[in-house]
Write a structure and sequence with these properties.
The complex is a heterodimer. A two-stranded antiparallel ribbon of chain A has the order 1-2. By secondary structure, chain A is mainly alpha-helical. Helix content of chain A is about 75%, strand content about 0%. Chain A has 21 helices and two strands. Chain A starts with 7 loop residues before the first helix and ends in a 7-residue tail after the last helix. Chain B is mostly helical. Chain B has a single domain, classed as Helix Hairpins (Orthogonal Bundle), CATH 1.10.287.3510. Helix content of chain B is about 60%, strand content about 0%. Chain B contains three helices and no strands. The longest helix of chain B is centred in the C-terminal third of the chain and has 31 residues. In chain B, about 25% of the residues are buried. The mean pLDDT of chain B is about 85. The chains are: A mainly alpha, B mainly alpha. Chains A and B meet through helix 6 and helix 7 of A and helix 2 and helix 3 of B.
């Protein structure tokens, strides 16, 4: 009975999305329902997280079909942490959407689709079935297609064509990989697959399947040669949409990579080498891309790509310390990237532009806001004791332990490039003298909207900045959490036993 | 049968990728459709093509007594077909809108997102 608790976050999102559909034309009601619902979701996620933290991994067999025949839902510490982060980011962006997205967009079902997106994310984290994972990925991408095109501006549609094509391609490669895997083993349950893949004799085919998974998830998580869709599309939709995309959509790809390569395709030196090389190139190319951009949202897009590299280095190193560092970075990155895109939205609404050349004088005009924005920007670089610093310690320790000096150099150099990029941004946007920007007629400037809207735009940034500060100053807690996740990931037998041997049927 | 199907799947994948790589938006849609169908057929093929009875255990026994067809791939294909159908119809509408707004059919001319702004 109690195991059903792991489905509550998922069902709540579904309920919210359906409920919101009944208020299709009542935008004010939608705003309130979405904010209250996301707050409840946050509370529920915290409760479930506490339950899993105290009681260990929980599983649920859908329809009481015993594993490996039915669809399994499993909440280990990693999955439930991701669900918790989704609900934190989801709550912040929900409030930010209510404040910043214009009602012309909200009329076309923005909020229902937004909650379907969160539903897909929650499901993808909780599922223990590889085909079910594909279905959740489809729910995610279909919702994201709608969110990215809502409004139908020229740049949006162009970005959407690129975004759609590459994400569709990724899904097809993922589906192909599932087909081959099913042909090899005759199973879809991830715990069962872990046993059966290890017993397959045709290792070459297993290797090829692993590569297919790597490419499929690699496109979604924007790894080095596969990331070109991301900077072409993430700056086009409203910044609330970019925030949830930047925070969570690439990270769900990283989650899937970590899950698949620690559970199903393990102890594969060749793949780990590939992952490391890709991670190093990702770190470099993303950071170099960010260096030459002028639009601040494009800078953040490239920084997303660059920082995916840290997580993948953690996975590629495949030691407990390294994976703990990668997971810590993942936790930190979800909060930061969501926050940064909201910050870019706030700057856009204040000044009417996102171009660094046109911006300036922010610090002189808005000292308090600048101080607030300082927190996510400098946490991103990882200035101690802010949050980006701690995972890098783990990662650097791990590179020393495995004598992987190229990775070490890449980590340090990418951090340095991030520093340069953020310093340049700070100097241009905050310290430079205010530039003359022609006033845009009919543009909803920050100082022209109602007070409540302003609160709705600033509060989520404060909220996420506080979470970031907690990750920085309470690093010991997060480190304990990521160490526990890493030990669970390294000892995949625990996961397998939880699914296959825990065959008691839930009422 | 298997060989024939394998060849067809290969052609579908190759044609799909080729069409996606063309510059025309319409060919992009055709490529997406071909690729989706190729993936569905691949699941069908890799689920083993056997001539067998439906996988229902007779009442008087507790195990399968005769050769049976694996039902799982069919369930997977059904799901995948529905999903790719939805995606394809979305793609058609998206391309129609994009064509209307951008006023070009050429992907190479869709570079507003790369402009420095």
């Amino acid at each position: 009975m109690t195991q059903q608790i792991i489905l509550y976050p998922l069902l709540l999102q579904l309920l919210l999305a359906i409920l919101l559909m009944f208020f299709w034309n009542k935008i004010k009601a939608q705003r309130v329902i979405s904010m209250v619902g996301s707050a409840i979701h946050l509370v529920v996620s915290i409760v479930v997280f506490a339950y899993i933290w105290n009681n260990g991994t929980q599983t649920l067999q859908a329809g009481s079909w015993e594993a490996p025949f039915g669809i399994t839902f499993i909440a280990d510490t990693f999955a439930i942490t991701m669900v918790l982060l989704t609900s934190i980011a989801g709550f912040a962006v929900s409030v930010f959407s209510a404040g910043s997205v214009i009602s012309g967009r909200l009329k076309f079902g923005y909020f229902p689709i937004y909650h379907f997106l969160l539903l897909g994310l929650t499901g993808a984290f909780l599922t223990g079935d590889i085909f079910n994972l594909y279905v959740w990925f489809e729910i995610i991408i279909i919702s994201s297609f709608v969110l990215i095109t809502i409004g139908g501006e020229k740049a949006q549609l162009e970005g959407a064509v690129k975004y759609f094509t590459l994400n569709f391609l990724a899904s097809m490669i993922f589906l192909t990989a599932i087909a081959v895997l099913y042909g090899l083993t005759g199973s879809l349950n991830m715990a069962d697959l872990a046993n059966k893949v290890a017993a397959v004799e045709n290792r070459a085919l297993v290797e090829i399947t692993a590569i297919l998974f790597l490419i499929g998830f690699g496109i979604k998580s924007a790894l080095f040669p596969l990331y070109y869709w991301l900077p072409a599309s993430y700056h086009t939709p409203p910044s609330a949409v970019s925030a949830i995309f930047g925070g969570l959509l690439t990270k769900v790809g990283v989650y899937a990579l970590i899950r698949v390569f620690t559970l199903i395709f393990v102890e594969d030196v060749f793949l780990d080498q590939i992952l490391l090389v890709l991670a190093i190139f990702t770190l470099f190319s993303g950071a170099l891309g960010a260096l030459v951009q002028n639009n601040i949202r494009k800078i953040f897009s490239y920084l997303i790509i660059s920082h995916i590299g840290y997580m993948i280095i953690g996975l590629g190193m495949y030691t407990e310390v390294a994976i703990a560092g990668g997971v810590f970075y993942l936790i930190h990155d979800i909060m930061i990237k969501t926050n940064l895109f909201m910050v870019s939205g706030l700057i856009y609404r204040i000044k009417g532009s996102n171009s660094m050349r046109a911006l300036g004088g922010f610090y002189a005009n808005y000292p308090k806001l600048s101080l607030l924005i300082f927190i996510p920007l400098f946490s991103l670089i990882g200035i101690p004791p802010l949050s980006g610093f701690w995972p890098k310690i783990s990662l650097i320790t791990a590179t020393f332990n495995s004598e992987s000096y190229w990775s070490l150099a890449a980590i340090i150099f990418a951090s340095f490039l991030t520093l340069v990029v953020i310093a340049k941004l700070w100097a241009e946007v905050f310290w430079k003298d205010a530039q003359e920007i022609p006033e845009r007629p009919r543009f909803r400037y920050f100082h022209k909207v109602k007070n409540i809207k302003r609160v709705e735009m600033v509060v989520p940034i404060i909220f996420l900045s506080l979470v970031t500060l907690y990750i920085g100053f309470g690093a010991e807690h997060v480190q304990t959490l990521s160490a526990r996740i890493a030990s669970e990931l390294m000892d995949s037998q625990q996961y397998i036993d939880a699914v296959l041997n825990n065959s008691q049927i839930t009422e | 049968m298997e060989v024939l199907l394998a060849i067809i799947i290969g052609i579908l994948y190759a044609a799909g990728v080729y069409m996606i790589l063309r510059r025309s938006l319409v060919k992009l849609i055709i490529g997406i459709i071909l690729l989706g169908n190729g993936a569905n057929l691949l699941i069908f093929l890799l689920g083993r093509i056997t001539e067998g009875a439906p996988p229902i255990i007779p009442e008087d026994s507790s195990v399968f007594t005769e050769a049976y067809a694996d039902p799982v791939p069919q369930a997977l294909i059904l799901t995948a077909i529905v999903i790719s159908f939805g995606l394809q119809s979305f793609a058609i509408i998206l391309v129609k809108r994009a064509h209307k707004v951008v006023k070009t059919d050429d992907l190479d001319e869709m570079n507003a997102t790369d402009e420095d702004s």
